[in-house]
Amino acid sequence: MKKYVLALMAVATVASCWAAEKVVPIKYGDFDQWVTRNIKESAVIGGADKTIYEIGPTKTINGAKAYVPAGSPWATSNVYAKVMGVVKTSNAVFPDVHGSGKCVKMTTMLEHVKAVGIINMDVLVNGSIFLGQMFEPVSSTKNPYSKMEMGVPFTQRPKYLQFDYKLNAPTGDRTYSSGFGSQKTIRGRDYSEVFILLQRRWEDAKGNIHAARVGTGRQRFGATTNWVSKHRIAIWYGDITNHAGYQKYMGLIDKTRPYYARNSKGKMVPVIEEQWDDADATPTHMIFMASSGCGTAYVGTPGMTLWIDNVALVY
Predict the structure, then answer these.
(1) H-helix or E-strand containing 8?
(2) Which of 137, 245, 250, 263 has a 20 to 30 Å separation from 237 between CA atoms?
(3) Which among 236, 257, 255 is positioned nearest to 247, based on CA atoms?
(4) CA-to-CA distance for 8 and 296, rounded, in angstroms?
C-alpha cells in the first residue's frame, strides 16, 4: 500500500509540473498565413515572372517593391534584389502542407543568373527564417548579414524553444558558390540548424551596439526524419562553456561575422557579442533563426530541406 501511495504521488507530481508549464506560440509561428509577392525580373536576365513568399498576414503584392513586414515579426532569406538596375529575385523558403494547415519549408539551392554577354553564374542559397527584417532591395552579395536586422526586443526567460520539424538531409560534401569564380567542393557534410539566443544589448555614445549572451538554445540536425512533434531545445543561461551538452557552435558570435541591428540613430551596425552574462540576467533581445544549412554564406548542400511548424516558447 505504501508503494502504491508513493507511485500515485509521483504521478501527481509529474502531472502538476506539466500543468504548470506555459506554452506561448510566437506570432505567425504556425505558418498558416503567407504574403505572396509577384515580381517580374529584368528582361536582360530573361524577364521571368517570379513568386516569392513572406510570413505574415495573408495578402498578395504585385510588382518589384521593397517588402516591409506589417505586424509580423518574421523575415526570410527570400529577397528582391536590384543590382545596377537589374531586378532579380531569390526564393528558398516556401509554404507547405502539414496536417490540416501549413508549415514552412526551407531548402538549399543553386540560384542561376544568366544574361548573355554580361553574367552567367550560380549562387548557393540556404533557405532561412528569422525574427527581424530583411532590407530591400538588396544591391550586392557582399556581407549579406548587413542587410538583415537580426533579433527583436524581448525581456523574458523561457525554459525551452518548442517546434515540429521534418528533415531531408542528402549525404556528401558541401558546395561553395558565391557567383564569383567557379564552384568549389568543401569537404564535410552540412547540417540544418535551429537556434534561439537571448542577449542583453546596450549602445555606446558613438552608436555602437554591444551585447552579452544571456541564454542559449541551439541544435543542428543531420539525419533524415519524418515529422517530429513538439521537439524541444533547452535554453541554458549564463556561461555555458562548461555545460555537459556544450558544443563549440553554441559559443559567442564570431566578431568577424556579426549579426546587425539598427541603432538609435537609425543606422545598421554590427552587434558585437562581447561576453557571457550572469545566469540570472534579464535579456533585452531575442534572436531566432532556422535554416536549411549551418555554414557561412554561399556554402551548403543543394537539396538539404528543413520543414518546421508551430514555433513556441515554453515557460
Answers:
(1) helix 2-20
(2) 263
(3) 236
(4) 52
Residue 149 vs residues 75, 124, 160, 250, 263: alpha-carbon distances, Å: 9, 21, 24, 20, 10
Do residues 286 and 198 touch, judged by C-beta distance below 8 A? yes
Average pLDDT, the chain: 90
Q: Give the integer Cα–Cα distance in Å for 302 and 124.
A: 8
What's the CA gap between 149 and 270, in Å, rounded? 9
Neighbouring residues of 162: CB distance < 8 A, sequence distance ≥ 6: 23, 230, 231, 232, 233, 310, 311, 312, 313, 314
Phi, then psi, of 12 in degrees rounded to 5 = -65, -40
Report the residue count for the chain: 315
Residue 25's beta-bridge partner residues?
312
Phi (first) and psi of residue 167, to 5 degrees: -140, 135
Amino acid at 290: A
Contacts (Cβ under 8 Å, ≥6 apart) of 19: none
Which CATH fold would you assign to the domain 24-314?
Jelly Rolls (2.60.120)
234 to 3, 13, 132, 231, 252: CA distances (angstroms)? 33, 21, 22, 10, 17
Separation of alpha carbons 113 and 142, rounded Å:
16
Domain extents for the chain?
A: 24-314
Task: Give the separation between CA 110 and CA 139, rounded to whole angstroms.
Answer: 19
Convert the pLDDT of each residue in 215-234 to its tens digit.
999 999 999 999 999 999 99
Q: How far apart are CA 315 and CA 297, in angstroms?
A: 33
Q: pLDDT, tens digit, for every residue of 66-103?
A: 999 989 999 999 999 998 888 999 999 999 999 999 99
CA-nearest of 283, 137, 290, 311 to 211 is 283
Instruction: Output DSSP code: residue 255.
Output: T
- What's the CA gap between 234 and 29, in Å, rounded? 18
Which amino acid is present at 39? I
